[in-house]
Design a protein that fits this description.
With 217 residues, the chain is of the alpha/beta class. It is built from seven helices and nine strands. Helix 3 packs across helix 4. The radius of gyration is 16 Å and the shape is globular. It binds S-adenosylmethionine.
Length: 217
């Protein structure tokens, strides 16, 4: 497993994010989208599971998509895309095929509108596929080879999703990268027990909480 030296802890990440407010304004304006905070304080409610929308920092997306650059055939899926920020940064930084699922209808509608505006503003040729679907049930496209998660899920959701992914990988056998932003310890325990995926990189905030992890098969 690889531990990066730079940035090596949360202070470095804060340094990276020091201009995050300006960066949000900059990219949202550049893309003609709105990916900022919670909509009217509403939260997604999935029976007992309860998750709030929060966008991944633009600074962080710049960082990981630079370290793991997109190649021509890449297809990234953001599982729980919220208002679509990860989708837009992936497109802007060179990913040609992008998809995602989102359980909350309101965020799904906002992101559809954001995608239309993004395409009009940037004249990008990226192909976006947005699904209003629960990650536990979503059909994963056979060409997806990168997956992004921002800590939204209870372990039971990951187990269902990764179960489907591993079934798919038995059929299509492709190199697949999983980016976990702010993952829960239970997610590590689960993925570490699989024989299919190995942890290749991790940035810790402290002993109990990781900021970021990357797994590959
Ligand atoms: C923390 S936000 C991350 C948004 C986006 N991925 C980003 O990084 O900017 C998590 C998102 O996952 C969605 N979500 C929660 N549970 C989900 C599920 N079971 N299936 C699909 N989406 C889900 C929430 O509605 C929320 O928009």
């Amino acid at each position: 497993m690889f531990h990066r030296d730079e940035p090596k802890n949360i202070n470095d990440m804060f340094a990276l994010s020091i201009n995050e407010i300006q960066k949000t304004e900059f990219y949202d304006t550049l893309f003609d989208v709105d990916t900022s905070a919670v909509v009217d304080g509403k939260e997604t409610f999935d029976n007992k599971l309860f998750y709030r929308y929060q966008a991944t920092n633009y600074s962080f997306l710049e960082y990981i998509f630079k370290i793991y650059p997109f190649e021509k055939e890449d297809h990234i899926m953001d599982v729980g895309f919220g208002k679509g920020r990860v989708l837009f940064m992936a497109s802007y930084l060179g990913c040609n095929k992008i998809s995602g699922c989102e359980i909350c209808e309101e965020y799904f509608r906002i992101t559809k509108r954001n995608v239309d505006k993004y395409l009009c503003q940037t004249k990008s040729k990226t192909i976006f596929t947005l699904l209003h679907e629960d990650a536990q049930k979503v059909k994963i496209d056979r060409t997806v080879n990168k997956l992004f998660f921002f800590n939204p899920f209870h372990l039971k959701v990951y187990i269902k999703f990764f179960g489907h992914l591993m079934e798919l990988l038995k059929q299509v056998q492709r190199k697949t990268t999983i980016f976990l932003f702010s993952p829960l310890p239970s997610t590590f325990l689960y993925l570490d027990k699989t024989t299919e995926f190995s942890l290749i990189e991790k940035i810790d905030i402290n002993d109990n909480h990781a900021l970021f992890a990357v797994y590959q098969n």
